[in-house]
Amino acid sequence: MDARVRLPLGLGEVAVWQALGLLAIVALFALYPVIDRNIGHVSAVADAGYFLLLVFGLNIVVGFAGLLDLGYAAFFAIGAYTYAMVASTQFNLHLNFWPMLIGSACVAALFGVILGFPTLRLRGDYLAIVTLGFGEIVPQVFLNLDKYTGGPNGISNVDQPVFFGHAFGFNPVPYYYLYLVVALISLVLLNNLRRSRLGRAWMAIREDELAATHMGVNPVTTKLLAFAMGASFAGLAGCIYAAKLTLISPDEFNFSVSVTILSAIVLGGMGSLLGAFIGGLLLALLNFMVLPQVTNWTHALGTALHNEAIQNADLHYIIYGLILVLVMLFRPEGLISNASRRAELHHGQPATSAAAAGVE
Amino acid sequence: MSAPLLAIEGLTKRFGGLTAVKELTMHVEAGSISSLIGPNGAGKSTVFNVITGIYVPTAGDIKLGGASIVGRKPHQVAAAGIMRTFQNIRLFAFMTVLENVMVGEQTRMHATPLDSALRTPRAQREERAVSERALELLDFVGLSAQSEQWARNLPYGMQRRLEIARALAPNPRVLLLDEPAAGANPVEKRELMALVRAIRDRGVTVVLIEHDMKLVMGISDRVTVLDYGEKISEGDPQSVRRDPRVIEAYLGKGA
Ligand SMILES: Nc1ncnc2c1ncn2[C@@H]1O[C@H](COP(=O)(O)OP(=O)(O)OP(=O)(O)O)[C@@H](O)[C@H]1O
Ligand SMILES: [Mg+2]
User: Fold this and answer.
1) Nearest residue of chain B to residue A229 (CA atoms)
2) What is the pTM assigned to this prediction?
């Protein structure tokens, strides 16, 4: 039971059973498209990929640095539009997908800094409201700049990636593997960052900004790096998303996207990387695979009973909301979390120092 | 006499109509333990808050090693070599004891975000050195056994010592301690004063706020007494203790 192994890539030391579990999970993901030949399923699991990247990115901002951002979908939109505008018939530019993957991440990161800058002095609720505003403004801008963005119709005929002569086309399998590789690399990089100078600076800002600055943490650069790095994941996700779907429109990046990403983080356990992964995966599968299926069942049931109300019922969001409410009632600390936070949330003991408000 | 390491010159801080600190001049010699004492609300913490850049002084100057640090942000003051603790402990609650101290070493680290993300050999080396040093400091304050606990789970007395270890992390030139013995029992108080001496012996200049006069008498090289924001006495502990103005200010307060 106590035997431990050191994982490569700085993943740290874990118990043997954990290492084997991890190996099995990675193997399962690697083989999934071979095991499940249902293209619809593979496509849905691939779509979990962009959602996971979004969760990873927002987890930097909210989970690590403690900056409550309610408009994160804006950066997803920026990433998607960046690629769609330069790789489609929109301007007949057709830039290559692979460099644009990095390009979209960089553009999103740049906007992370631009939109983050005015919020630097805000905290908590105020920050949430301002980011909420940004989240609403960005899709509106894409909607209204119709000369460049196609307005409400968005951009169609977005170029699909070609990998060494192999066109991705509409087959979800290559997208699945692309997401898998990007997500695994992201996990390793994020895990490294979390336990580094910058990761500790983020957490210190989250725990007590005033004390952090007195320990030499520059709040401006630390927060802007969180916004920029967080946004870059949304840029990556947006680029692959646009390429896989081949068409994007402004209404796909609304508030509910931001909230769903945030709920995945809360569900998984705020600040925990493993929590973000599990929460993101569960919510994505729920949204893309399980709940659409439920809607099919109720539709079939309604048809069989000749009941139009049941036939047209969309239980999707009801069940989704119910699950979130139940988790928060019975496990408010999220699925993965440390013992002390669990104690606090279940027994209501306040944190000793982080709760102190004054400067005295 | 050599030039003071930390020089506070004619410092005034007003909050609206309230003058919290009035024309305070105080010189701190390198390698000394200086105490700033005074009754509740005398303006002691405000002096620290102005030094570390939370507040901009209304008037006056603050010099570290001859260079003015007025107008610098708290993180720049830390980088210049002044670290502090807080009157009401401010630890990073949901970080481990070791991580708390490692945050204190921010200003001595060079790893870029890219180094960190890729865990370059350079970053790994620095990370190892920093954590070894943090462990050494935890040993110094007697918290080795707690290094992996969450800071918030430590008992009060240990939290005080952790805050001191965190402030010592970058090997500061000046350490500002705001009532480190508050809430401690007599045994803990004596231990804390021994710790303060040991810190001075490591070459760190200490400025100590305390409102229990007896406590600081034994270890201070120099004592400055504030009352209603004004310096009412200054000198070596013995002469300050006998100063009638100090006795008056402390009358009924057990001095
Ligand atoms: N930010 C602020 N705004 C307004 N007034 C303040 C502020 N900070 C301190 N004061 C006031 O300045 C005066 C000095 O406060 P300070 O905290 O410096 O006293 P102190 O000597 O540290 O007292 P104690 O021993 O109680 O800690 C008090 O009257 C306090 O109310
Ligand atoms: Mg005080």
Assistant:
1) B113
2) 0.91
Kindly state whether residues B161 and B103 are assigned to the same domain: yes
CATH of the domain at A50: 1.10.3470
Structure token pair of residue B168: 């010592």
Q: Nearest to residue A116, comparing CAs of A202, A224, A233?
A: A224
Q: Does A19 touch chain B (CB under 8 A)?
A: no
pLDDT in tens, A261-276: 999 998 888 888 888 8
- CB-ligand 1 contact for B20 (6 Å cutoff): yes
Residue A145 has φ and ψ, to the nearest 5°, of -85, 50
Query: Is residue B196 a part of any domain in this protein?
Result: no
| Domain encompassing residue A326 | 32-356
**A189: in domain:** yes
What integer pLDDT is reported at residue A235 of this predicted model?
98
Q: List the one residue out of A65, A54, A52, A23 whose CA is nearest residue A194.
A: A65
| Ligand 1: centre distance to CA B41 (Å) | 5
Residues of B in contact with A65 (CB under 8 A): none
Domain range enclosing B41? 1-81+174-185+204-255
Q: Is B51 in the pocket of ligand 1 (CB under 6 A)?
A: no
CA-nearest of A318, A273, A240 to A62 is A273
B87 lines ligand 1 (CB under 6 A): yes
CATH number of the structural domain spanning residue B40: 3.40.50.300
